[in-house]
Amino acid sequence: MEAFTSMPGWLATFILAMTPVFELRGSIPVGIAVYGLSPLEAYAISVAGNLTPVVPLLLYLEPVSRWLMRYRPGHVFFSWLFSRTYKRHVEKHRKYGLLALTLFVAVPLPVTGAWTGSAIAFIFGLKFKEAFSAIAAGVVVAGVVVTASVMGIISLF
């Protein structure tokens, strides 16, 4: 962990934004409060970091999952994941299409975000360009929401 604290704040913020647990929800507050980045810097770095894993996820999730499903643990996990995700999101996808994906990613709550949005795009067979555009729009909106929330909380103190 010492290596993480000794790296430049912008890099630590970028890496936090790339992770599936923290994404923007963690990287923007940490960038501003811990590393002293301006809200605009934390926002821009976090959006860039959060979008970085989306490209490989959209391109490689299908072939990697197909390969892993050849083995029992992979088959059990991906069957569960695909079934669960499909059941939870099929109606919204049918009704709202790409807007549903954008709004899902835009809501900065646990289990929403670019990583889960990429999984949803894969499960529904969305084309790369459409999926990336919807996810990117959601990340931009989520970043604004998180940054505004952090600045509102900071102004209270």
Characterization of the model:
The chain has one domain (2-156). The longest helix has 29 residues, at 128-156. With 157 residues, the protein is mainly α. The chain is globular. The protein has helices spanning 2-6, 9-18, 23-33, 39-51, 54-68, 72-96, 98-106, 114-123, 128-156. The protein is built from nine helices and no strands.
Based on CA inertia axes, which overall geometry fits? globular
Task: Return residue spans where pLDDT drops below 50 for at least 5 consecutive residues.
Answer: none
Radius of gyration, whole Å? 17 Å
Count of individual helical segments: 9
H-E string: HHHHHHHHH
Instruction: Give the class from helix and strand content and strand pairing.
Output: mainly alpha
Short description:
With 157 residues, this protein is mainly α. It is built from 9 helices and no strands. α2 (9-18) packs antiparallel against α3, α5 crosses α8 (114-123) and α7 runs antiparallel to α8 (114-123).
Topology:
Layout (H helix, E strand, L loop, with lengths): L1 H5 L2 H10 L4 H11 L5 H13 L2 H15 L3 H25 L1 H9 L7 H10 L4 H29 L1
Helix pairs in contact: 2-3, 2-4, 3-4, 3-9, 4-9, 5-8, 5-9, 6-7, 7-8, 7-9, 8-9
Keywords for this entry:
single chain; globular; about 0% strand; mainly alpha; about 160 residues
